[in-house]
Amino acid sequence: MAQYEAVIGLEVHAQLKTKSKLFCSCSTRFGNEPNENVCPVCSGMPGVLPVMNEKVLEYAAKLGLALDCEINRKSVFARKNYFYPDLPKGYQTSQFDLPICEHGKVEIETSKGRKTIGVTRIHMEEDAGKSIHSASENVSFVDLNRACVPLVEIVSEPDMRSAEEAVAYLKSLHSILRYLDICDGNMEQGSFRCDANVSIRPLGQEAFGTRTELKNMNSFRHVQKAIEYEIERQIDLVEDGDAVTQETRLYNADKGTTHPMRGKEEAHDYRYFPCPDLVPLVLDEAWIERWQAELPELPEARRERFLREYALGEDAAVQLTAERETADFFEAAARAGQSKARKIANWVMVDVAHLLNDSGLTLADCSGTPESLAALVDLVEGGTVSAKSAKDILSEVLRHGADPKKLVQEKGLVQESDTGALEGIIDAVIAENPDEAERVRGGDKKVVGFLMGQIMRKTQGKANPGVVSKMLAKKLS
Ligand code: ADP
Ligand code: MG
Ligand code: ZN
């Protein structure tokens, strides 16, 4: 049986975080009443003229710089003509043969190592409105709040070879957009969405196979599942002697399958032409220099620095730098405390992450500071409080901004590390459990845990386990 290889290229639409729309001053706010954010320009009235939002240009160019693209000194808006009820103008203002950015790249991290994925182009365009079909009233509504909201479309080269690589690419891009603070990245609300082009070919063959385009995936998990399903489906087709049809397919999240959206292979004829209402964009060198200088440290550079400066493992460095907020929090905590950065990293990735997840909070809206986490970890590392007690009070620290030192005192959680105070309790436990003690003396290590448990119970969990374990070993050797 032939071995197959998948070929995947992604088209990502990211909504830019500007206050106003691309060509008018209407608000871009999500969740307003239908058609509240609308004016003659974005609703496509005749006789009006678009005025370019400068922020959009800045954001698109910054993304291009962050992805190592060439920034075209001259770029042009074009009309992409098609009819749809939620597109009253009859065309989408987009870019065609002269997009703002070209020839960039995104570095990805997969289980097989690092890889570079080519970015073909980035262009600016406006979003369309939204049609709402009401089954109960048997009517359709059009909401134009989203019409003319600014987007960038990022088109990749067909460089990915598995669903895992496609998701890694998306995550990398998502992370960069969030670091640049130009897109909120919300996949459920559609401010970061992706179409996946998927084809297969026999291993060793150079020519690409016929591709399908997958839509309607609104989480990383959906992207993964949809692509995996589609690769299998295409292989089955070819193995059965059938051909893949070029078509757009929708992902069905309930079934985990894809099915055709439109009928026959559509011959795209958008009759693109340069928009006569918008002059070509000519970029000043000084602007580009300023935007370049304003770029923040990006995830990849930060990861490298974390590896060097904090002696973290590769996985931890990747995880901690995916979101700028997390990286900032970790770094501030690592600087504030006496404990090893690796310990802090662990707390951030495991306990803090779980707690925030359970309470639906983010680092930005929780009351805990990096300094308070550092103080808590220092209490654990210094033996003042057990890791278990510390975990119990972490929630108060994060949610209510409690001072860990005070809290530990108030709740009487200070750990007993004084050998003098522990001696009597340990002796009592040995005396109460002579058989178990004898078995430990005879070399049965498993029973040690039982005795430790008894000692912990007698001290209400306050005995320092490290100290007790050493004392016990000495007494029963
Ligand atoms: P369209 O204009 O139909 O969107 P493009 O040529 O711009 O087509 O390609 C769109 C996306 O499809 C790009 O990300 C590209 O990498 C990808 N792509 C092109 N050919 C293939 C193929 N045979 N298999 C998988 N992906 C492909
Ligand atoms: Mg396309
Ligand atoms: Zn408007």
Describe it for me?
This protein has helices at 54-66, 163-180, 220-239, 285-294, 299-310, 314-321, 324-336, 341-359, 370-381, 387-400, 404-410, 419-432, 434-441, 446-458, 465-475, and strands at 4-15, 70-71, 74-75, 77-81, 91-95, 101-110, 113-126, 130-134, 139-143, 150-156, 192-202, 212-215, 248-252, 257-260, 273-274, 281-282. The protein is α+β, with helices and mostly antiparallel strands and 477 residues long. The chain has 3 domains: 4-287, no CATH class; 300-410, no CATH class; 419-475, Arc Repressor Mutant, subunit A (Orthogonal Bundle). The strands form 4 sheets. Strands 2-6-7-10-1-11-12-13-14 form a 9-stranded mixed beta sheet. Strands 5-4-15 form a 3-stranded antiparallel beta sheet, with no helix packed on it. A hairpin with a 2-residue loop joins strand 6 and strand 7 (113-126). It is elongated, with a radius of gyration of 29 Å. The termini are far apart. Adenosine-5'-diphosphate (ADP) binds at residues 7-11, 155-158, 197-199, 208, 211. Zinc ion is lined by residues 21, 24, 26, 38-39, 41-42, 148.
Give the arrangement of secondary structure elements.
Blueprint: E1 4-15, H1 54-66, E2 70-71, E3 74-75, E4 77-81, E5 91-95, E6 101-110, E7 113-126, E8 130-134, E9 139-143, E10 150-156, H2 163-180, E11 192-202, E12 212-215, H3 220-239, E13 248-252, E14 257-260, E15 273-274, E16 281-282, H4 285-294, H5 299-310, H6 314-321, H7 324-336, H8 341-359, H9 370-381, H10 387-400, H11 404-410, H12 419-432, H13 434-441, H14 446-458, H15 465-475
Parallel strand pairs: 12-13
Antiparallel strand pairs: 1-10, 1-11, 2-6, 3-16, 4-5, 4-15, 6-7, 7-10, 8-9, 11-12, 13-14
The structure holds adenosine-5'-diphosphate, magnesium ion and zinc ion.
Adenosine-5'-diphosphate binds near residues 7, 8 and 156.
